[in-house]
Amino acid sequence: MRNVEFGSWNALAGLGQHGGLVAAEAWAWHVDLIARQANRYDPRVLSRIRFGSQQSTAEYQRTKARRALLCRQADGELQPFDAVVCPTVPIVAPRIADLADESVYTSTNRLLLRNPAIANMLDLCALSVPCHEAGKAPVGLMLMGRHMGDRRLLAIGASVEAVLRKTG
């Protein structure tokens, strides 16, 4: 095991302007429903979807092209490794009551989604293996692998899980 840094991961922030691809695609899908039934949407979800309305078609296409390049770069960067290991989330999930303040909710939500979003944005495969002690807050160890490397990563994950259970 060794610490590594991937250029593709460091470049991901540039894909998030105006909510990124997800917001643009969600806006395109939901725009008519929102016009008729915005009150039926969760306000936090609705605000994220509306970010997509700020993107031009040209901006969306540029972001898609940039993402495609980063996906290829990430796949190449992961080629020498069996798996990348990191926490599934960087903090133990807070209690819902602690997220009542909107700014706390937003910053905590972004932090909790940070690590899994890497695999999602770069079209990698990933899984989370539970690794917490019995009776403690649940935490997971995330393993990430190359694009379409699901079977290989699942086998590695099963081995890691077996070791963690034995050493528990």
Q: What features would you describe in this structure?
A:
The protein is mostly helical. The protein has two domains: 1-79, no CATH class; 81-168, no CATH class. Helix content is 54%, strand content 10%. The chain is built from six helices and three strands. The protein has helices at 7-10, 20-37, 43-51, 57-78, 102-121, 150-167, and strands at residues 84-87, 125-130, 140-145. A three-stranded antiparallel β-sheet has the order 1-3-2, sandwiched between helices. It is globular, with a radius of gyration of 18 Å. The relative contact order is 0.13. InterPro entries: Amidase, Amidase_dom, AS_sf. Pfam families: Amidase.
Residues in helix, %: 40-55%
Largest sheet: 3 strands, antiparallel
Tally the beta strands.
3
Q: Strand share of the residues?
A: 5-15%
How many domains is the backbone divided into?
2
Q: Mean of the pLDDT scores? A: 94
Question: How many helical stretches?
Answer: 6
> Which class of secondary structure composition applies to the elements?
mainly alpha
Low-pLDDT runs: none
End-to-end Cα distance: 20 Å
Placed side by side, the strands forming the largest sheet appear as 1-3-2
What Rg do the Cα atoms give?
Answer: 18 Å
List the secondary-structure elements in sequence, H or E. HHHHEHEEH
The rough form would be described as globular
Task: Offer a quick outline of the entry.
With 168 residues, the protein is mainly α.
Please outline the helices and strands:
Blueprint: H1 7-10, H2 20-37, H3 43-51, H4 57-78, E1 84-87, H5 102-121, E2 125-130, E3 140-145, H6 150-167
Antiparallel strand pairs: 1-3, 2-3
Helix pairs in contact: 2-3
